[in-house]
Amino acid sequence: MPDRDGGPYDRTVFYVSDGTGITAETFGHSLLTQFDSLRLREVRLPFIDSREKAHDVVRRVAKQREADGCRPIVFSTLVDTDVNAVVRQADAMFIDLFSTFVEPLEQEFGVKSTHTVGRSHTAADSAQYKRRIEAINFSLAHDDGQSNKGLVSADVILVGVSRSGKTPTSLYLAMQHGIKAANYPLIPEDFERDRLPDTLYQFRHKLFGLSIAPERLSEVRNERRPNSRYASLENCRYEVAEAERMMKREGIRWSSSTTKSIEEIAATILHELQLRS
Predict the structure, then answer these.
(1) Is the dihedral of CA 163, 165, 168, 171 positive or negative?
(2) Mind listing the domains of the chain with CATH numbers?
(3) Under 8 Å CB-to-CB from 257, ≥6 apart: which residues?
(4) How far apart are the C-alpha atoms of 174 and 135, rounded to whole Å?
């Protein structure tokens, strides 16, 4: 089966859930990253909360099995036993994330779990949920240095050249960890003045830098502004070198985003700044 780049997939992976499917996808994806030599087609099937929908899943998996010529992988977080039983009939490798971990915990705690459908996503009133929403709003309001107001409330301020990964990292920290992350670009004018933007000095203890290989930066910028000086390899080399020199001089901890996943970058920031989600 061809993918968007024209090459074949090795396997198809389904994430099946009675809720959004985010839990199944997150857990499954974490496991599948251990097999980076494989090309996997990943499909999320959320809100499978009836036997009818479960039978639809079985038919879809069977169709995919025929198209691929090999069994798909199914990661499931289905709670309803009847719905789960139907999906288990699919011609696939079935990995039940809840039974794998909940049943041993039931034995250890000596109590039965609630087996509540969508339980992991019904905490809209929890303090943690509200904190994440506030963090997302904060990160959006403080993206790319668009506002200096309220920086005192920031948990971290990411700095780096344009297109080095600051915005997605800020939003990931907010959505996944409830971290109020602002981000601020380092621009050629800062390098000419040979100093950080004045606004940032009082928050130096909150700064964390992101860098990137000039070659990769040039590729990313060319997607946005092709054949411009902004995207030229020469300019990218200059900006990256100056930004790294400035961060070293100012004692700012930093990491390269070139070969790291956003999860790895976020984990590094949390560890280096001793932030708790």
Answers:
(1) negative
(2) 11-121 (3.40.50), 127-272 (3.40.50)
(3) 164, 165, 169, 210, 211, 212, 265
(4) 5
3-class DSSP state of 246: helix
Find, among 164, 185, 122, the residue nearest to 258 by Cα: 164
Q: What is the DSSP letter of 159?
A: E
Most confident of 2-11, 111-120, 230-239: 230-239
DSSP class of 230: T
* CA dist., res. 107 & res. 115, Å (int): 15
Quick one: tokens of 58?
A: 């079985």
Spatial CA neighbour of 161 closest among 194, 140, 188, 201: 188
Phi, psi values for residue 255, rounded to 5°: -145, 155
The encoded tokens of residue 97 equal 């994330």
Nearest alpha carbon to residue 273 among 257, 250, 259, 253 = 253
pLDDT (tens digit per residue) in 29-84: 888 888 888 999 999 999 999 999 999 999 999 999 999 999 999 999 998 989 99
